[in-house]
Amino acid sequence: MEYNVIKNADLILKSSPYFVNNPNKYKNKWHDYFNNHNPICLELGTGRGEFIMQMAKKYPHINFIGLELNASQLATAAIKLEKEKLNNLKLIKDDARNIINIFGKEIDTIYLTFSEPWPKKRDEKNRFTHESYLKLYDRIFKKNKHIILKTDNKGLFAYSLETLSQYWYVFDCVSLDLHNDERKFENIMTDFEKQYFKEGRPIYYLDAKFNN
Q1: Are 205 and 179 in contact (CB under 8 A)?
Q2: Could you tell me if 107 and 42 are in contact, meaning their C-beta atoms sit under 8 angstroms apart?
Q3: Strands, sheet with 89-93, edge to edge from the N-terminal-most edge strand
Q4: pLDDT (tens digit, 9 = 90+) per residue, 27-67?
Q5: Measured on CA atoms in the order 14, 136, 47, 178, is the torsion positive or negative?
Q6: What pLDDT, in 10s, does the model give residues 106-154?
Q7: Phi and psi of 196, rounded to 5°?
Q8: Rg for the chain (alpha carbons), in Å?
Q9: What Å distances lie between residue 24 and 9, 21, 93, 103, 208, CA to CA?
C-alpha cells in the first residue's frame, strides 16, 4: 500500500492539537501532560493513525501515543482527527530509536502494527523486534513489559517469536490467522489490515509479556 505525499505536512502537524512538537521536554512528565495517571500505550510506526484513533475512542481511560517518522502519513492522521475530540491521544513525529529521549519508565504497552519487515539480513537491526530495540523498550516500560504485534509478514513474525523468546518474554497469545481464529479476538484493524483482509491474507498476532 502506497501513501500520497502531502504538501505542507509539517505545517499541518504543527497546527494540530494532537501533535506534540517538542516531545523530548515531556520525558518523565507524560502523566502531567495528559493530566491524569492512566496507563500510557505507545504505537511505533502509527502510519495514518487508524488503529490508534479507534483504540483511543474505545478506551477513553487509557492514554495513547502514536509515533511515526513519515510526515505525510502522520499529517493524514492529524487530518482524520480534526473532527474528533480525544483527550487521550497524541501524535509524535520521530525515529523510534529516539524513544529513550522522549519517555522515561512511563509506557505500559507497546503496539507494533504492520511494521516494516526489513526482510534482508543486512537490515535486521531495523526490525522493531531486534534485540537492540528490545533493550530500548526496557528503558521506557513502566514496570512490566508488554508488546502486542500484528503483521502479514510470516518471516517477521517467525523472527519476532524467536527474538522475544530469547529475551525471556512469554506469550499470552499467538495466532497464525487472526481473522479466522476460533478464539475470536477483539481486534481493531489498521488501514493495511483492512486491505489485507480483503485480499484474504492471514494476519499473524502475538501478545507477549515479561513480568519483572
Answers
A1: no
A2: yes
A3: 89-93, 63-68, 40-44, 109-113, 145-151, 204-210, 170-175
A4: 999 999 999 999 999 999 999 999 999 999 999 999 999 99
A5: negative
A6: 999 999 999 999 999 999 999 999 999 999 999 999 999 999 999 999 9
A7: -65, -35
A8: 16
A9: 21, 9, 11, 8, 28
C-alpha cell at 156: 517477521
CATH architecture observed for domain 95-210: 3-Layer(aba) Sandwich (3.40)
Contact of 40 with 15, CB cutoff 8 Å: no
CA distances from 205 to 62, 112, 193, 202 (A): 22, 10, 12, 10
188 pLDDT above the threshold of 60: yes
Domain boundaries, the chain: 95-210
